[in-house]
Design brief:
Number of domains: 2
Strand order of the largest sheet: 3-4-7
Order of helices and strands: HEHEHHEHEHEEEH
Structural class: alpha/beta
CATH topology of the largest domain: TIM Barrel
Strand content: 5-15%
Radius of gyration: 17 Å
Helix content: 40-55%
Largest sheet: 3 strands, parallel
Oligomer: single chain
Shape: globular
Number of helices: 7
CATH class of the largest domain: Alpha Beta
CATH superfamily of the largest domain: Glycoside hydrolase/deacetylase
Length: 205
């Protein structure tokens, strides 16, 4: 964690906390039963550790985003969402999550700034719900390009059955690329190039 913060500072990269379930063996990608207060304590413990390293290097926490299985759990369970977003409120940072889910609803309820997120290297089911897997399969760059262009140009999310409109009230998104997806570096480069091209065409506010 200390080395990651140092690298982020050296490369002028903002740092967000990515707390997960207490599941080191499964890399946080296996669901487990937790009460809202237990989840909040688990998140505070992890985010607090990162915040300490950030302070040591003169940096600030930028946002909080749940990792792995708990990302999906908090997206669909209101009580868990409020617990997770409540931690972001405690640390006075935005909460990053899935638009149109309990993530966004809890952020609005608790008055926490919300950053809508979209995934370039994961699939969405026909209802527009993210398909979270324990292992990430390869994704062709052509598919990533098509997905990103459709999101940015048409404001549509690509699903396993077609396309759905982006959630209501969302004008901007943060695009996620997982580091353990095969070909992650090339995927990230492709996504950044497409985003830079799109953003260059957006008139300044």
């Amino acid at each position: 964690m200390n080395e990651t913060v140092q690298l982020a500072k050296a490369n002028n990269v903002l740092v967000g906390a990515h707390p997960s379930l207490p599941d080191k063996q499964g890399f946080g990608r296996r669901e487990m039963k937790m009460e809202p207060d237990e989840l909040a304590a688990c998140f505070v413990y992890q985010v607090g550790a990162l915040t300490g390293f950030l302070l040591a290097h003169g940096m600030k926490l930028n946002h909080i985003k749940p990792h792995g299985a708990v990302y999906g759990m908090t997206a669909r369970e209101p009580a868990l969402a409020r617990a997770a977003v409540g931690v972001a409120k405690t640390f006075d940072v935005p909460f990053m999550g899935l638009a149109g889910t309990c993530h966004q609803a809890a952020a609005e309820e608790l008055g926490v700034p919300f950053i809508a997120e979209w995934f370039a290297d994961l699939d969405y089911n026909p209802e527009g719900k993210l398909i979270i897997t324990k292992k990430h399969d390869p994704v062709p760059l052509s598919a990533v390009t098509d997905r990103v262009n459709r999101l940015l140009g048409e404001r549509q999310v690509t699903t396993t059955a077609g396309f759905l409109p982006l959630a209501a009230g969302v004008s901007e998104v943060s695009i996620c690329c997982h580091s353990d997806t095969p070909g992650a570096v090339e995927i990230a480069k492709t996504v950044k190039a497409l985003m830079d091209k799109n953003n260059a065409q957006v008139p300044p506010q």
